[in-house]
Write a structure and sequence with these properties.
two-stranded antiparallel sheet, binds thiamine diphosphate, 11 helices, alpha/beta, eight-stranded mixed sheet, binds magnesium ion, Rossmann fold, binds iron/sulfur cluster
Length: 281
């Protein structure tokens, strides 16, 4: 396999017309642009959960771990803490990241972990044949909700903002350039960056359900209060960057400039350090 290429030889099994293709395409387009900015392809590491979204792991020629349902968020944080020099990104489904992995998502945002989370929001547990997710619209009829879902959905952007995320955006598979630019910004951002991508799953939803409803934010909010207001007053089809701010990141608070991989200390030195700590107790 050519390591300079973004694609792999794995057969793509997404349904024709699936919104996941655009996410894959946007990531592939973002990699050379990130390289131009000095971010090496070999320093970008990914994880994925389990679901249709997660198959992106097979189609992208990047290092990483194909994780468990909802645990991709924990796995990517482990990778970042092990080697903070890496740019880390996780691909998560709306069921994966806002259901099974919900606590991991909230805590990653809370501690402003320096990572990017791409949430493939298709309103269904697609791979397992269309059950409703925590983001599914009220009233939607599917195999697990034959009379229509009677729960109010989470607003993912609002929850990430309140939990502590520092870059929060919404994109759409039908707006490839905006998606690519936002992925680049999110990966460059220092801190927890979250992109909710409205990704039609054509087996359950038609593109026409989304297409005409999309609109872009008129003005990007410049602080937390404005972001809160913008997320609440706009609807789920409003695209753009809702929040972009600076806050200390987890790994720097944990060990400053240290990197356990590139600045590895010998066992002897570690024992000396431990003895010093114990002697001072
Ligand atoms: C711990 C665990 N629970 C449940 C499953 C079954 N499971 C696999 S994929 C999936 C749904 C995925 O939905 P989503 O995260 O929205 O991804 P999509 O398929 O829509 O991309 C479920 C419930 C699993 N693999 N592991
Ligand atoms: S079921 Fe939906 S999300 Fe899965 S590949 Fe098909 S269109 Fe895409
Ligand atoms: Mg889904």
């Amino acid at each position: 396999m050519d390591l300079n290429k973004s694609e792999t030889d794995v057969e793509n099994t997404w349904c024709p017309g699936c919104g996941n293709f655009a996410i894959l395409q946007a990531v592939k387009k973002s990699i050379p642009k990130l390289e131009e900015k000095g971010i090496k392809r070999s320093d970008i590491v990914m994880t994925a959960g389990i679901g249709c979204h997660a198959k992106i792991f097979d189609y992208l020629n990047l290092s990483g771990v194909y994780s468990l349902h909802g645990r991709d968020i924990a796995t990517i944080q482990g990778i970042k803490i092990a080697n903070p020099d890496l740019k880390v990104i996780t691909f998560s489904g709306d069921g994966n990241g806002m259901g099974e992995g919900f606590a991991h998502t909230m805590f990653a945002a809370k501690r402003n972990m320096d990572m990017t989370m791409v949430l493939h929001h298709n309103d269904v547990y697609a791979l397992t044949t269309g059950q409703f997710t925590p983001l599914t619209e009220k009233g939607w009829k599917g195999p697990s909700t034959p009379k229509g879902s009677f729960e109010d959905p989470f607003n993912a952007l609002l929850m990430i903002l309140i939990a502590g995320g520092t870059f929060i955006a919404r994109c759409y598979s039908g707006e490839l350039n905006h998606l690519t630019e936002t992925i680049i910004k999110a990966i460059e951002h220092k801190g927890f960056s979250f992109i909710e991508v409205i990704q039609p799953a054509v087996s359950y939803h038609a593109w026409t359900e989304y297409k005409d409803k999309m609109e872009f934010l008129e003005n990007e909010p410049s602080n937390f209060e404005e972001a809160l207001l913008a997320i609440r007053k706009n609807h789920k089809f409003t695209l753009g960057t809702f929040y972009n701010s600076k806050k200390p990141v987890y790994h720097e608070q944990l060990y400053g400039e240290h990197n356990p991989i590139t600045k590895k200390v010998t066992q002897e030195k570690r024992i000396q350090k431990l003895e010093k700590i114990l002697n001072n107790l």
